[in-house]
Design a protein that fits this description.
The protein is built from 13 helices and no strands.
Length: about 280
């Protein structure tokens, strides 16, 4: 993508960054919506949005079209982390929830393990565009979700969409300030953060509940997750560039190099789930 549209590393990184921003905030929004709508309906909307973004990326003739396609993909795909947490809570007893979540983590990790290999193979024999087309296959899982999920809803609460929008704008401004080297954007991000903090202390059902940050164990857990995911996504972005530009590997071999790490995550996810049930 970078070569075709003559982009710098910081510019092309937005293919991943814009996805992660919407993915993070969208997963919380879907969690809120699950209190008002059926899970099967939310998953249907999410996968249709994901397919629409994939098709737009496939036919993109300009870089902005890829970014819009990634936005749509992420707006749809963020339904998965939300429902993957809600489903074990609704359908499994507390004694077996850890194992259920571990199996979910295994599926996610297995996808990360196979993804780079599939992507490397596709880009070796065809074009990066077909990776977008391949993503449309996710819609074929819809009949199974529609069949096996019931019609249960949670307890309806008013969703704080304004808070979600403010948090999204804050993250986007800070990240843009880094990639563009703009102090103005950084200042805007800090101001937006202050407005967001003030907002969540004033509304009845805030997007992020302030009381969470009084829990020391929770803060440590979030910080550890932040560091782990930061390193994980950094490696996901930088390793392929290192292996292709410095080591001269083809995309297919890059996928094989990245496979063992993701495979290890697959194996340890189920072990972590069982350990959670025991402890």
């Amino acid at each position: 993508i970078g070569n075709e549209f003559r982009l710098s590393a910081s510019q092309v990184s937005w293919v991943i960054t814009v996805y992660v921003i919407v993915y993070a905030v969208g997963s919380v929004i879907y969690g809120k919506l699950a209190d008002q709508f059926r899970l099967k309906d939310l998953i249907t909307v999410g996968l249709v949005l994901f397919a629409a973004g994939s098709l737009l990326g496939f036919v993109a003739s300009a870089y902005w079209m890829i970014i819009v396609g990634r936005l749509l993909q992420s707006a749809g795909a963020s339904v998965i982390p939300a429902t993957s947490m809600i489903i074990p809570i609704r359908y499994f007893s507390p004694e077996t929830r850890g194992r259920a979540l571990g199996i979910t983590g295994t599926g996610l990790a297995l996808g990360m393990a196979l993804g780079p290999i599939c992507a490397g193979f596709v880009t070796s024999v065809a074009s990066w565009r077909y990776l977008f087309l391949l993503s449309v296959l996710a819609t074929f899982t819809l009949p199974f979700y529609r069949k096996y999920l019931d019609n249960e809803r949670g307890q309806a609460n008013q969703a704080d969409f304004l808070g979600g929008a403010m948090l999204t704008a804050t993250i986007a401004a800070v990240l843009l300030s880094v990639s563009e080297g703009s102090w103005g954007l950084l200042t805007a991000g800090i101001v937006l953060l202050g407005c967001f903090v003030r907002h969540i202390h004033r509304v009845q059902n805030p997007f992020v509940h302030p009381g969470l940050f009084k829990n020391r164990s929770y803060i440590i857990g979030v910080a550890a997750s932040f560091i782990a995911y930061g390193l994980s996504f950094s490696a996901t972005f930088l390793l392929p560039q290192l292996l292709t530009q410095i080591n001269g590997l083809s995309p297919l071999y890059v996928g094989f190099v990245m496979f063992p790490g993701a495979l290890a995550a697959t194996l340890f996810s189920r072990f972590g789930g069982r350990l959670a049930d025991m402890k």
